[in-house]
Amino acid sequence: MAYRSSEKTRQKKDAKRTAMMQAAMKVFAEKGYHAATVRDVVKQADVAIGTFYFYFPDKETLFTYLYEETADFILQSLQQATSGSADFETKLKATMQSYLNIAAYEPAVIQLLLVGGVGAVPSLHEKRIQFRERLAGAWQRLLREGHEQGVLATPQDLRRSAEYIAGGIDEIVLTLLRLPNPNTDVATAELIQTTLRLVGYQAAE
Amino acid sequence: MAYRSSEKTRQKKDAKRTAMMQAAMKVFAEKGYHAATVRDVVKQADVAIGTFYFYFPDKETLFTYLYEETADFILQSLQQATSGSADFETKLKATMQSYLNIAAYEPAVIQLLLVGGVGAVPSLHEKRIQFRERLAGAWQRLLREGHEQGVLATPQDLRRSAEYIAGGIDEIVLTLLRLPNPNTDVATAELIQTTLRLVGYQAAE
Amino acid sequence: MAYRSSEKTRQKKDAKRTAMMQAAMKVFAEKGYHAATVRDVVKQADVAIGTFYFYFPDKETLFTYLYEETADFILQSLQQATSGSADFETKLKATMQSYLNIAAYEPAVIQLLLVGGVGAVPSLHEKRIQFRERLAGAWQRLLREGHEQGVLATPQDLRRSAEYIAGGIDEIVLTLLRLPNPNTDVATAELIQTTLRLVGYQAAE
Amino acid sequence: MAYRSSEKTRQKKDAKRTAMMQAAMKVFAEKGYHAATVRDVVKQADVAIGTFYFYFPDKETLFTYLYEETADFILQSLQQATSGSADFETKLKATMQSYLNIAAYEPAVIQLLLVGGVGAVPSLHEKRIQFRERLAGAWQRLLREGHEQGVLATPQDLRRSAEYIAGGIDEIVLTLLRLPNPNTDVATAELIQTTLRLVGYQAAE
DNA sequence: CATGAATGAGGGTTCATTCAT
DNA sequence: AATGAATGAACCCTCATTCAT
Asked: What are the boundaries of each domain within chain B?
């Protein structure tokens, strides 16, 4: 007896859901978890408050989901940049490129991850820690390759270097995002050079 | 006949005010701005809620003041480490030592600055940005000395390197603070070495 | 050319309507008026929420209608038991039998009437009062017969005795319904005896 | 340093708390748990909504507490009436007197117990069941005395009779409370006579 | 000075109801 | 007829802030 949920309707619903998540992303990125209200989100999405609860179970769940999805997106982007067979320097450049690209074209993504979830609900705090660890882990994997290729300074604790890099990049990215017209290319080039120095890179002969 | 609060009274008042600020620091560092309530603070300080509003105009002002004071404390500590006449390496070691010391013995100070005020009230956001800039500025001054002594790699944007350092250190510090028994000494030594590489340090002959 | 819904269509519609009312009865009996939601009802009936509003104008009206219908059903059952020509004792036994039978086989009916509509909407409160009065009225009619047959103790206010009986039975019924395997037969026999004593029954010689 | 909480202040607070509980009692008795809102209560008490939460942790807790307290009050009143050494008839009269007195002078107490907590939150449902059981228990104890004095009809299930009595009385009481000027005395006398018949009372020679 | 009772704006969430498809 | 996405009033509750004592 059930009417076939016309494909069109389904698509429309999905589109709306996506639109609402983007609205939520923007609001959370700007205000952070606590300061952002559900009313802010629905206003941004131009829907009624009940609509929010039609699409999402509650504020916390949405934020957690948004945070995880965003974190996965970033980490996969980095993963992609480091996969394949290439030398350390090439991969590092690609990775940095990738990260800065996201920062340039999807600033809310970065804002959400870096400031949106701080000082929030405990379950969220946990997620944030996980993200930082996975982010450092991504860099660490890259460094390990460099180490195996024998192009990095020794001794060094690759984990700690990876954390240093992750933190350093984000500091610079946040500074960039505060500028009206950030020159991402120059920053990327400099970040690459600085990071190469940081790990004591010596090109193989 | 003009009233004048006797010196003793004033001291007592100041002591209470200080105690309340320490209580507030602890609470804000643990929970962050939004999750911490004024009631949490007064409970920690063991005073009535009305007393809070005798000493501070409101929650936001207190937090801002606390944030500024804490930021000043950190920045002055770094300043002290870099003042005097010594070579670049010595000063960098002293600075790093100083920062990590604070993290080790006054973790709340670091927590407050790094996570306590993120995603909070707009006025606070501003303060946070200022702090990051001043922190980068402190490192930048040190790097400039190194540059003038000719011991750093060129070309490099000292400002950007300073930001990289500031961000990298904090990432590692936050990781350390999550551990039950962080070995600060090892971390400090590594941070120094990594930072020296980052700036392309070459000891003068 | 006037449309006329074919007999078949009407029957189908009535069937659906009935099914939805049974679903509503179950839900209201279990949760009571306020705690039961329209969504609970449509879920139980396995239809969409819009369908509910096609068949019923709103929640309150449905409940009121359901309550009335159920009340009528009970009262008619009692009526039937007391109709015909028989002596007081026989009729009382039949009436009690009838009531306890409903409680045993259609507990939701009783639950709905006794607890489903308490503390609800004003219009419902009115209905509940009416039901109690009609229920007492049914007993009162029976008692009047007994009085006319001269088998009841005098003096007694038949109305008040009728209320006493109605309230006493329901108290016991509700207690029974809480048991996993209520022995209705024993309870019925006891209720009959107790009620006969209550009205001071003396078999005619 | 703590100022002595002047006895006067304390008393005032207690008085207010009591006033608020009475306001809550009235509202809950009139509307039942679900239909009554916290705003209804604070409006009745003429205080702000925050004041409610200063005195009580939440709506459910208050209601539960109110319900328990009221139940205890009623049960203790009955207890008092049945204690002491007197014959069965005297005690039954006293008990009935006591119950009807409360109904006459504190109708909200009865309303709360009988209708206020029906169909409410699960924890409350439990409380209601407990109350009914304790109420029946009170009557049962009285009947047992009568049984031991050999003035009651045998055989009869004293528990079931007790429930019958409890339910019957409440039905009549609720009817009375609907009248503008209920004549409690006549009702009491009749209830006593009817109850004596119900239990098959035969005065000892 | 210090207290804590009192306030009420505002936050998250529910749910009866509507209406375009 | 039937659907279910969308709405928004209203609920419970929190918490920064005030002020009489």
From this structure: 60-198
